[in-house]
Amino acid sequence: MSAIIVAIDGSAASGKGTLAKRLAAHFDFAYLDSGSLYRAIGVAVLRKGGDPTNAAQSVAAAQTLDIAQFTPADLRTEAAGVAASQVAAIPAVRAAILQFQRDYAHTPPQGKKGVVIDGRDIGTVVCPDAQAKIFVSASLDVRVDRRIKELRAKGELVIEARVRADLEARDARDSGRSVAPMKPAEDAWQLDTSALNADEVFDLSRKFVASKIA
Ligand code: DC
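^ thats the input. predicted complex w/ 2'-deoxycytidine-5'-monophosphate below
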């Protein structure tokens, strides 16, 4: 029996990660944060003193990726997010981790009967066969606010203009790249979370997913 796949795509700081984790816990599905793969590749390049926009360096990092080398704290910084967005624009980097993501989706760990994956191209490229697809968005102002709170809670020094500029640059790069650009799948449910809190986003999404996998 093939696994149930829930694809959650959307822009940076839209709340998709929080939502994906809660959905996975609720349905007892596995969870894969595909952004963390790109973040780990970007951080690996930076650790070697390299340049995440350099295709040869980034592809080498993707092909030798060992996710165990990175803690969540290594991956969740703003610098890691920017580097991730840069390596993610390189087609051969995406190709190097495509099969891993598909295998994870189709055969989730611990014999789980389903998986929730969040990213930018899960519903369009990685798992076009997903049973439920949600595309999460929020206005730039709301996302800047959310990202600032998240970074401050971790004790990072935050400059609002910098956070805004980084998010804008990432959105432009993630949706403007030639390969697997961020965009809603045709059959995705589009959820604007600007005026919703995390519980409201979860409740609406839980009902949507339940209706798709019943
Ligand atoms: O979701 P995130 O902020 O952790 O993702 C970091 C970057 O990785 C994002 O700016 C673009 C890239 N990414 C991608 O291109 N495709 C995915 N499926 C997930 C992330």
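Residues 160-176 form the longest helix (17 residues).
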